[in-house]
Amino acid sequence: MFKAARRMREQLVGRTVVRSDFRVPQHATADLSGRRITAFDSYGKHMLTRFSPAAGDDGLTLHTHFEMDGAWQLVGPGKVLPRSVGDEVRLVLATDGPTAYALRMPVLELLPTAEEDRVVGHLGPDLLGPSWDEDEAVRRLAADPDRPLVETLLDQKDLAGIGNLWAVETCFLRGHSPWTPVRDVDLRATVRLARRMMQHSLDHPGQVTTGDTRRGQTHWVYGRAERPCRRCATPVAFRDSVTGRPYARETWWCPRCQPGPFPSLEERPTRPGLRRGVNEESFGSRTKRLSGRPGYARRA
Ligand SMILES: [Zn+2]
Predict the structure, then answer these.
(1) Which residues are close to ligand 1, an ion, with C-beta < 5 A?
(2) Could you tell me which residues come within 8 angstroms of residue 294 by beta carbon, excluding any fewer than 6 positions away?
(3) Same domain (yes/no): 105, 70
(4) Are residues 105 and 194 in the same domain?
């Protein structure tokens, strides 16, 4: 996410819009041509593209959010977007440099720059943002002392910009069960670690937490259900995401290296068949789906 934002920023900021074409009903008549792109910032998974003022306003901001599916695609001068994705274009932003296409983008809205707070004001400090505020992040994370660590880390109102992979791996590296109440956690050390890992990742390929870039070796527990813990060889446990609870995502942990509370098998909602063959000691599943099908670990 941050790498994509950085690439967009490098390519677009300072460029002038030559033509814009919004293919979403609410902005069908909007026209950004002639405006300069003054900034491209990300706040968690929200991206804000800012445009210079024109007659009648003090500058506009384009708010986009990928959710699970959207993407920005940059196409250099003289090149064309692959025909196969033509139907997915929601916005064409042609500049005096590259052309940016917003594909499938579920959230795409234009608003006065002065009103940005309306769309990102509720977010907690952005771990990799320019105005990172560690004290404020710790304050928000600690606000509900009984809340499970992994859920508060994922709640963008407490901390913006951290995905499930980083949250799960941070819990492992700090030696806490993901369901440890935050009152029992050194939150400052926890956010520092998460931030350090994510910053390091910005300048290195992939999302590696182990320092080992070989295939299958990049994570401690994330995506490794039933496989031996890299530290103690105990099978890595898994809890599926919980429908209707946005911060109860798929979770992996080592029951030995990460002491603390964890959901009983009864409390672990799961997809049909996922629990087959589970024994109480390994807290995982032996179904084909979890036994290393490629792609599983790629889900973020
Ligand atoms: Zn372990």
Answers:
(1) 229, 231-232, 234, 254, 256-257
(2) none
(3) yes
(4) no
Residues 6 or more apart whose Cβ sits within 8 Å of residue 153: 141, 159, 162, 167, 170, 171, 190, 194
* Domain count across the chain: 2
pTM listed for this prediction: 0.72
Average pLDDT of span 150-165:
92
Residue 172 CA, ligand 1 centroid: distance in Å: 9
In a 3-state reduction of DSSP, which class is residue 71?
strand
Q: 129: how many CB neighbours lie within 10 A of its CB?
A: 16
Domain range enclosing 199: 134-290
pLDDT, tens digit, for every residue of 129-142? 877 899 999 999 99
124 alpha carbon to ligand 1 midpoint, in Å? 31
296 falls within a domain: no
> In terms of domains, do 112 and 196 share one?
no
